[in-house]
Amino acid sequence: MEKLRQLIVSRTVFSIVLFLCICYVNTYSQEKTVSNFKAISPVDAVKKMNPGWNLGNTLDATPTESSWGNPPIEKYTFDDIKNSGFKSIRLPVTWTDHIGPAPDYKVDPKWMDRVEQVVDWALAKDFYAIIDIHHDSWTWVSKMAIDPETGKYVNDYDNQIIKLEKLWEQIAERFKNKNEKLILEIINEPNNGDWEGVKIEKPTDPNNPETLHDLTHKQMDDLTNRILKIIRLSGGYNDKRLVMVCGLLNDSEKTLESFKAPHDKYIILSVHYYAPWDFVSNGWGKITWGTSKDKEYPDRIFKQLYEKFVKNDLPIVVGEWGTLAKSDTLSKWYYHDYIAKTAYKYGMTCMWWDNGEHFDRKNRVWRDETIKNISVNAGLGIPNSFVIPLDNYFQINTNVYDLKVKLELNGNQLVGIYNEEYNLINGVDYTLDTKHSTVTIKQNYLKKLLKSGKLGLSATLKFDFSQGVDLPMYIIQYDLPKLAEDSITVDKSKGEIKSDMRILVSFNGTKLATVKVVDKTNKKPVVEKDTPYLKMHDHFDYDETGIILKKTVLNSLKADSLITLEFWPRDIKIEIKINVLNKPIEQEKGDK
């Protein structure tokens, strides 16, 4: 009898648990499939997405999420970005290292789960979230290869589009039931070969195929329509989901020239904006931005995009933009404001590219809070004001005079000037000329700031404006920089140089602006053909202890050369002699 009672109880408990499990499964399933999807027009969505931010060099890194120096994404990152004022997040994803072999090209389930987890975190914070196919664009999608039998380049588009279709079938299936704030982006920067540099006419080694990229406009149109069809027929909410499409390279001019919009009510056009590239990348001596001439190009290109697309109900997201190297702080801030507000003026949303340079995801802080605030304000249509110049240098042991700075108010008013807790007094510490929009910081107040004799930043004056960012202005005391040695030797006698070279510098309050290299004898450029100036990251870098010359530069030196380091303040230049030791001519002949 006791056993019977226990059996009845056990079966009853089991039935209750089974019922609850079924209810839970049904409820969970219902939550997964019924996600309150409410179709939204592309025009309305783009208005609500501004400003946006890219979680770059993470899910798009290869071969793993943390391979390019950023920590794995954490759920709290989306809290941090939300609290910073952004409304949308682009989540670049590279799939190439997570795809199985033909013919199925099955995505690793763990990778698909990880991407979905990150997407869900973003959607849970009410972001508009974009996922794409990112670096696959140049690793395999837009590919030519060498035929090992003929030794000739063959266009492999037909094979790669099949692989792309298989990949999109899986992505569309996995994400088809997410709410309307998930946006699918077909491909990132599809390559037509313009970024290849020198075209390779003949294969150098047919057994080790080199890769070129050569998507044509016709192929790009075909790719877009084929993938869009897959998404629309995949079920769930994908028939009305917003999809981002693009022209070759996401380039504005190529888009204006040849992009053909598919016949679809739920598409958004994506362009990227990294112009001018020499300033964005701190290359070839272009270290400032902000003149009337500088502004002409973004004014023209955004207006043309507006007239051709936005005005005709095809809204645009500037999916990537920003600067990618150290440069003049004021120019960098001014550039971010101008590009974002010009895009806003023409009804576009800007999504700031951040590869970890801007937001320190590990320590959860912005490396430059001001540039973030400028970008957010401009994306919301809030005018920012500027103080020119931003960095104000005073050489130690020299006379200090009144400092006059120009205000670019952009419709705002100056509310006050602060130094930490001290509120500067108008008429005593400074004077304001409203007619000419200038502020003069008085000599006596500056002497107080500089009296310690400390080299480097002496004070930060905060300019409080009626709208937009409260802008800091820097008072810097400096002395001439000093080198550990004024000549260096580059020894190439044993072959190619394998590592970079560090040149120790005591900056003494100054800051490196740019670097140039010329042949010592004929004064001609030795690294680039048309300019003596180098490109940051590719050719040089710097930190608080000195200058780093990259091995690419060292190996470019054929004879004794001269390096010129140019600093802020801009009148400071230091020359370094480079003695180059090459292989003896007899040895070079023997090597051949």
* Multimerization state: single chain
What is the highest CATH level, the class of the largest domain?
A: Alpha Beta
Main sheet: strands, sense, barrel: 8 strands, parallel, barrel
Strand order of the largest sheet: 1-2-3-6-7-8-9-10
Describe the global form.
Answer: globular
By helix and strand content, what is the structural category?
Answer: alpha/beta
Could you tell me the CATH topology label of the largest domain.
TIM Barrel
Give the termini distance in whole angstroms. 98 Å
Radius of gyration: 29 Å
Put simply, the count of helices is: 15
Number of strand elements: 29
What is the total domain count?
3
Mean pLDDT: 90
What is the CATH homologous superfamily assignment of the largest domain? Glycosidases
Provide the CATH architecture of the largest domain.
Alpha-Beta Barrel
Residue ranges: pLDDT <50 for 5 or more in a row? 1-34
Estimate percent helicity.
25-40%
β-strand percent reads 15-25%
